[in-house]
Amino acid sequence: MVDRGLIYKEWKQHQALLLAIFFLLFLSTPLSIISEYFSYQGCLNNDNWNPRDCQFYLNYQSGGSLQFFWAPGVFLAVAQLGLERSRGLLDFTLSLPYSRGQVFHTKFWMGGTVLVGAQLLGYLLSKLLIILLKPGSVEFFDHFMIGSMIISLMAYSLVMAAGALTGNLFAQLLTSFTVTILPFLIVVIPALNLRVIIGRELFWDQLPIIDSQIFQYMIPIIYVNPVWVTDSKYILLIPAAMGILFYVIGYISFVKHPSERSGSFFLWKQLDRPIHIFVIIASILSFGYFGYGASESMIGYVLGMILGAVIGFFISYFAIYKKMKH
Question: Where exactly are the transmembrane stretches of this chain (predicted)?
Answer without folding.
Answer: 16-40, 60-83, 108-132, 144-165, 177-198, 234-254, 275-292, 298-320
